[in-house]
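CRISPR locus-related DNA-binding protein
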Amino acid sequence: MLVASIGFTVDFIIRRLADLRGGQSVSRVVAVGLDVGDGSWSRVEQTYSLLNHYLASMSIESTLEKLHLGPRLVPQARDLIYREASSFDGDVELYLSGGPRMLIVTLMLAAYSLDINTSSKIVVVSYGEGFPGSIEFRLIHAKILSSLDKQSLNILKAIASGNDNVKSLIETLDMPRSTLYKKLEDLEKMGLAKKIYRGRWVLEEGLDKLL
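Structure:
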């Protein structure tokens, strides 16, 4: 499932679907727009109409959801993301590229305030606007990283830099072996790193983009 911000153009969403092998891995698209109360919502609806026609030709279900500008903007967005994630059996991609910046920031804040179980299903993706480049990460990784101590963060950064075995990590971090083993065990339990063959350690996919 794709939960995507939408504004006055369908280009970003169509570009993302093309990158996802023509949308073959997407069964449903939830386009989320922001009604700022100035009459511009009709343009968002027109944009969605074009998108819906395109998605229908690919047999992809879609819907347009409206967020209302006001003091409960973030809770509105959080409830929407929670509802969609809870009703879908699998990962939900939160695609933040189209629409006004306030909408994108609102959706990111809303997602970050979700509970741990729901956060574990969310993958955040954003593309550059007018320039190449993208970012993609699992929301749960960002939330866990924000609560880690400095030693654990340094271990992850060292692994990302190529220090992937215990001996190299001890030398690089000047850390007691017992402390390192305990930290690595904790990081593995949290799903941030894992031990592979010959005692090497690797980060979970995409985690390096957050370090």
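The two ends are 27 Å apart (CA to CA).
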